[in-house]
Amino acid sequence: ARPLFEAVPPDEQAREALAAEQTRPVLEACRDGLEALDALNSETAAELTRALRADFKNSHGWKAQQVMLPLRATLTGTTSGPHLSDMMRLMGKEVCLQRIRETLELL
User: Fold this and answer.
1) From CA 84, how far away is CA 59, in angstroms rounded?
2) How buried is residue 22: exposed, middle or buried, by Cβ count under 10 Å (0-12/13-18/19+)?
3) What are the pLDDT digits (tens) for 34-70?
4) Residue 70 Rama label (left phi>0; alpha psi -120 to 50; beta)
């Protein structure tokens, strides 16, 4: 099992997800959404991920997986696992923001 609170290098599938064209806009939108939240809990995390999926579907025609995989790869280093909103809640707002900012610096 991989540690939840320790940053881990992305696996091969996660690296592929991070190379996708949607990575930067998705991460920037998630960063902005997280920064605007007073608290990250089950409800706000689920609301944020729903909004990201809907916004990018409407604006770019991207499917949910195209939006969520780069975010999951950024936060967990893998492209599979429990619901992303649950992972975000467990990791907390600051850890999520830190991993997103670090990934954006590398892109």
Assistant:
1) 22
2) middle
3) 999 999 999 999 999 999 999 999 999 999 999 999 9
4) alpha
Q: Is 63 left (phi over 0), alpha (psi -120 to 50) or beta?
A: beta
DSSP 6-74: S-----HHHHHHHTSTTHHHHHHHHHHHHHH-S---HHHHHHHHHHHHHHHHHHH---HHHHHHHHHHH
Query: Rounded to two decimals, what is the model's pTM?
Result: 0.92
- For Cα atoms 14, 82, 39, give the angle at the middle one, nearest 5 degrees: 100
Token pair, residue 63, equals 């499917």
